[in-house]
Design a protein that fits this description.
388 residues, 3 domains, Heat Shock Protein 90, alpha+beta, single chain, Beta-Lactamase, 50% helix, five-stranded mixed sheet, five-stranded antiparallel sheet
Length: 388
Amino acid sequence: MSELSSHKTDTERLQQRNRELSILHTIAEALNHEVDLSQALKVALAHVAELFDLQTGWIFMLDHNTGKFYTAATQNLPPALNNPRRMGGTCHCLDEFLEGGLDAENIDVITCTRLKDLIRGTDGLRYHASIPLYAYGKPLGVLNVTGGDYRELSADDLELLATIGDLIGIAIQRARLFAVSAEHGAVEERNRLAREIHDTLAQGLTAISLQLESADVLLDAGSVERARSFVQQALLLTRDNLEEARRSVLDLRAAPLEDKTLAEALEALLERTNDELGIKTHFDCVGASVPLPARVEAGVYRIAQEAITNALRHAEANSISIRLTVTAERLELCVEDNGLGFDPSNLPAGHFGLIGLNERAKLLNGTLAIHSSPGEGTEIEVVIPVER
């Protein structure tokens, strides 16, 4: 009887090891195909949820530039947690992680700062497992997961998740190295564009100058008709060079963002509006530490800038507020003023620059909504999916 029991134990152990190896192989293979950080984290969460028969999960990443955490990926968050303010800031797990005291462990509702005092909207969530993420000893973030029945994970599963955390850490570092390489290439491309613009404009201006000098000589000689042909040629060259310059600078980043985050640039924009015009302004931001692609930051900044200009120029507003909300999946920008307002359904084409705002939002694969009525001010909402 004891031999049979021993054999059964060995069989169970073998099955357990095979399961662990299969899970590690599946996740490692999936992560090996991802060089984009956001996508790698989403893939890791999805596979962990499927292979461990779990339902909900989220990953907090540490931004080493600001020292703050942001929600980098989520999986089936319950309604009460699907809130940037609830998921923002610090908590017990993140504090322990920063102090170096967080191991792969189960966290209950009493210990978890985010679950504490929550009753509705948690789908019964009372536990989650927290797994620290490191790469070569460098702290990266925390992986949180929980099952469909909200059970505590076993010691074996926690140990396996710790190993998976190491795989995720390596994938994060690789994605970041790839991003640095891509950014270096982008810097080189911007420098190349700058040289190209300089060379193009320099050559164009030289040609225009020669044409105008010739026209000047001919005018002194009294040859008006011949001079006119040189002036016309100079005009054609001017238009061609202006168009070339516009094409070249379309993809260059907005200058106000060169040394600021999007949130900092928007806040500075409002402060400048207040200082120069005495307009009352307010800025609110949630999730500012979430990294964004440069083209998204530049596009959103231009949208806010144009919306403010419209409010001041056409709506006679004396109060403007901006609300910026950034999650792992999307960015929301709201620009609100107390101006004259208007009827969005009865607006002349091109009025208030709304066509330009809508086009900028579409270029970022986003949507734009306008809420306004005469005498009630205007609220412009832009929603843009975040793709890293």
